[in-house]
Amino acid sequence: MLYLSNFKLSSTISSNPNIYPDHVFRHMAGEVLLFDRITVLYGSNGSGKSTLLNLIANKLGMAGAERMATYGHSIYVQRFIEESSYQLGHDDQERPIYKLPGGSRYIKSEDLLYEIKKIQQESVLREGLLHEQFVQGKSKAEVEELEQSYELKKKMDIIQFSQEKYSNGESSMQFFEEHLLPGQLYLLDEPETSLSPANQIKLAEQMNDLARYFDSQFIIATHSPFVLGTLHAKIYNLDASMLQTAEWFELDNVQFFYQFFHKHQRLFE
């Protein structure tokens, strides 16, 4: 199932090198990304992979989308969003899809870090839970009602207990088990955050299964060699001078790992 078929970036780029987000996407202006069931946006820090995910989330009006940083140039951000375009996909009977599934969501690395960190103060935990309700689309009135409820107190007690019981990595895996569901479109920014290599592979295998058997679609920003090597994905290399696809073993970050362990190969023999 493809919920999102493609995304075209605005072809209008300001000549001013300080204009955001034009300077981020200068080498990709007007390009069209064609999506598979799992598509990876690979790139080093500053490559624009997280910004691109957020741009897509904003254009699609997805839960979890953040207002894009403007640095005083909000008119250019709005223009770039408006001039970018997309096409939704088709179901298994090749019928066009007219809207995204209701549970589709953009999950950022910051969301994971906030979810798994040790929260010491009850007020911080309460604020985080209420913020999560806003992200999920609840109205102000619904959130205010929840704030006074026994349901919220019970959930806080459970989370506070769990934070003492589970490690960051275990909490992160539990988060994905609860939030990655069949039949949805997910944009994931560095889902490997806080995960061991073994759990990164386990999570990637889970996403493979959801995409292949349960009609989920993923667009993922990552530079983890373990995730890259496990996913059955189309990979866009945002570090290249022009937008292009690549095999996972060709990517610089993967090659760095290979060269490092090859250099120390005798220690493993």
Walk me through the structure.
The mean pLDDT is 85. The protein has 269 residues and is an alpha/beta fold. α3 (109-116) packs across α7 (168-179) and α4 packs antiparallel against α5 (140-147). β8 and β9 (244-245) form a beta hairpin. The protein has a single domain, classed as P-loop containing nucleotide triphosphate hydrolases (Rossmann fold, 3-Layer(aba) Sandwich), CATH 3.40.50.300. It has helices at 49-60, 74-83, 109-116, 122-135, 140-147, 150-165, 168-179, 197-213, 225-230, 252-263; strands at 4-8, 32-34, 38-42, 85-88, 105-107, 185-189, 217-222, 234-237, 244-245. It is built from ten helices and nine strands.
Distance between the termini: 45 Å
CATH class: Alpha Beta
Order of helices and strands: EEEHHEEHHHHHEHEHEEH
Largest sheet: 6 strands, mixed
